[in-house]
Design brief:
five-stranded mixed beta sheet; three-stranded antiparallel beta sheet; 4 helices; globular
């Protein structure tokens, strides 16, 4: 479908946007801006991470992917502050989107999505019907960047399903 700009006044969170647009969180793609710092130097740069609205970024996986992408140089990552987000996207936090950004790292779950919702890099505005083709040339890499959730396939055997249980500490050494 053709990309459509929609007014989303004051709707910043995944829950607020998807409820307002009557869509499930899995139809939204979050654009998260990270500050990547090289551990062997004072230099840093921004990277942009795309993750489905109902998923969370696993920063350990992100660091491994970025380190590999930078020829094995170790990196640290932290979410950009509101001032940095506004400087990069020209919009307040909650309205960042991938269109117009460089150095995009996208989770595998985003790769096959069609007609999804993203921020429009404009206050109180989102895009509907965004597709990978709208920013494909800016994607540096697709990778596994998300935290696992119950029901995901087992990463070792691929046939079982992940279950998550609370544990208690029995002893402390």
């Amino acid at each position: 479908l053709p990309r459509e700009e929609v007014n989303t006044p004051g709707k910043k969170t995944v829950e607020e946007v998807t409820e307002y647009l009557h869509e499930p969180p899995s139809k939204l793609v979050k654009t998260l801006i990270y500050k990547m710092t090289f551990t062997d130097a004072e230099s840093w740069s921004n990277v942009h991470v795309l993750i489905r609205g109902d998923h969370e970024v696993n920063e350990i996986k992100l660091k491994k992917v970025l380190s590999s992408w930078n020829h094995g140089r170790e990196v640290e990552v932290e979410l950009a502050d509101e001032k940095t987000v506004k400087a990069i996207t020209h919009a307040p936090q909650g309205f960042a989107g991938p269109i117009g950004l460089d150095a995009i790292f996208a989770d595998f779950a985003v790769e096959g999505m069609k007609n999804f919702i993203t921020g429009a890099n404009k206050a109180d505005t989102h895009f509907k019907n965004v597709n990978i083709r709208d920013f494909k040339e800016k994607i540096a890499k697709f990778a596994d960047l998300r935290k696992i959730v119950p029901g995901d396939p087992c990463p070792k055997c691929g046939t079982g399903k992940i279950e998550i249980f609370k544990g208690i500490e029995v002893g402390h050494i």
